[in-house]
Design a protein that fits this description.
Layout: H1 2-15, H2 20-39, E1 45-49, E2 56-65, E3 74-76, H3 77-83, E4 92-97, H4 104-131, E5 137-146, E6 149-153, E7 158-161, E8 177-188, E9 191-197, H5 201-211, H6 213-217, E10 220-228, E11 232-239, H7 246-251, H8 256-264, E12 269-274, H9 279-286, E13 294-298, E14 303-308, H10 313-317, H11 322-331, E15 334-339, H12 340-346
Parallel strand pairs: 2-3, 7-9, 11-12, 14-15
Antiparallel strand pairs: 1-2, 2-4, 5-6, 5-8, 6-7, 8-9, 10-11, 13-14
Length: 409
């Protein structure tokens, strides 16, 4: 019998991850409960159990008296002498109790105590296991719809994907495997209650940590992230190693890394930009892919005025203001975007040269945009086109070797 009990405890310890000591404690408590049901008292009950062999003994501690008034707690001096002649009045005698003598009710109650303890420990183990995964990403299997919520099986326990944490437009089929972000783990009488999300920005961050080795190792840091789930996400990355390109590391060879994350997010677009300690530079990067002429940022007020070329205004703002909204969340600045024309009219923009002006390509003899235009010695008298003949003429000062690149007349 002891061998069978020992084997059962070892199996429970392995399968349920419940320690053997805890199970032995449950057995002790169950025997004490059985004694209370059988004798009516348990204050004088002592249980001894060997953890190595599971051999156990139950004793009733009785006080030696001349005249017995309570058989449960007292023993006469004569009966005590029959057990051991050394006993005297006031001594404590341990009388072994045979558990086989317990009645059916007492035995059933003892069994319930053991089962209840096992269930409690199992819930505790599950709670601790998933509480350690809080704020992390796990893979789950879609079980069923519960109204507008979805039940996700995480292995040993089911989680709840509420309607508020679902991406609009995403439809899941039963048995489908998806990645979810664990928001919160609560302990309840029925076991751990786990709330998960598909919309949380940290989901994207954790996916990058799993896909990009440099992020996982801390070489590349994700400094900031803003997300509109199901549509678009912007992340700002920074490299602690000057030899590692943070954007390139996150994108991967031929976009393999970022595409894996995009596929997991069902086609959600992801913009990866370089983080910069300079607020103006960061805001300019955050408004990518739009070009920016100037940025005036107030670090104290957390506001910024941005001027973009006229033809880039709609791109900078984005569809329904999405690009500007995500850039504002990413940087923490309230961004006011104006076109160059609007800025000039309102007096917010000085007459700077437009660095993003498009130069027309001429058919003959070719494109005349050249490094000479950036030369500080270049002045207004230099001309790229001969005004009298209206023919293209290459200015010699644009080349190191005189005459190089000129077309024959």
């Amino acid at each position: 019998m002891n061998n069978e009990l020992l084997e059962a405890l070892n199996i429970l310890e392995k399968e349920k991850d419940i320690s053997k000591d805890t199970l032995l404690e449950a057995i002790v408590n169950s025997l004490i409960t059985a004694c209370k049901n059988h004798f009516g008292k348990s204050e004088n009950i002592k249980v001894e159990i060997d953890p190595d062999t599971c051999e156990f003994h139950v004793y009733q501690e009785k006080t030696v008296v001349e005249e017995v008034e309570d058989n449960t707690t007292e023993i006469s001096l004569g009966n005590a002498k029959m057990i051991d002649s050394h006993y005297d009045l006031g001594d404590i005698v341990n009388i072994e109790v045979k558990s086989k003598e317990f009645g059916r009710i007492a035995t059933q109650n003892a069994k319930n105590v053991i089962l209840q303890k096992i269930r409690e420990e199992e819930r505790k183990v599950l709670f601790n296991q998933y509480y350690g995964k809080e704020k992390d990403v796990v893979t789950g299997i879609v079980q069923r719809n519960m109204g507008r919520n979805i039940s996700i099986n995480l292995g040993k326990v089911d989680a709840i994907l509420s309607e508020n944490e679902q991406v609009r437009g995403e439809v899941f089929r039963p048995t489908e495997r998806i990645k979810v972000y664990i928001l919160e783990v609560k302990s309840t009488s029925k076991g751990p209650k786990i709330l998960v999300s598909r919309t949380h920005p940290e989901l994207v961050k954790r996916l990058f940590e799993s896909e990009v080795t440099e992020v996982k190792e801390g070489i590349v840091e994700i400094k900031s992230i803003s997300r509109e789930a199901g549509s678009r996400t912007k992340i700002a990355v920074w490299s602690n190693d000057p030899d590692v390109d943070p954007v390139g590391a996150c994108v991967g060879l031929n976009g393999a890394r970022v595409n894996a994350i995009v596929n997991e997010l069902r086609g959600e677009k992801i913009d990866i930009i370089n983080w910069n300690e300079n607020s103006a530079m960061l805001i300019e990067n955050a408004l990518s892919p739009a070009k920016v002429i100037s940025v005036i940022a107030d670090a104290e007020e957390k506001t910024a005025k941005v001027v973009v070329p006229d033809y880039q205004l709609s791109l900078a703002i984005g569809k329904e203001g999405q690009n500007a909204r995500l850039a504002a969340r990413l940087t923490g600045f309230k961004i006011d975007i104006k076109s160059e024309t609007q800025a000039r009219e309102s007096g917010d923009f000085m007459d700077y040269e437009n660095d993003y002006e498009d130069y027309e390509e001429l058919d003959e003899p070719g494109n005349y945009e050249d490094e000479a235009m950036k030369d500080p010695e270049y002045d207004e008298e230099d001309k790229w086109l001969d005004e009298e003949e209206d023919l293209p003429v290459i200015h010699e000062s644009a080349y190191d070797t005189p005459g190089e690149g000129q077309e024959d007349e």
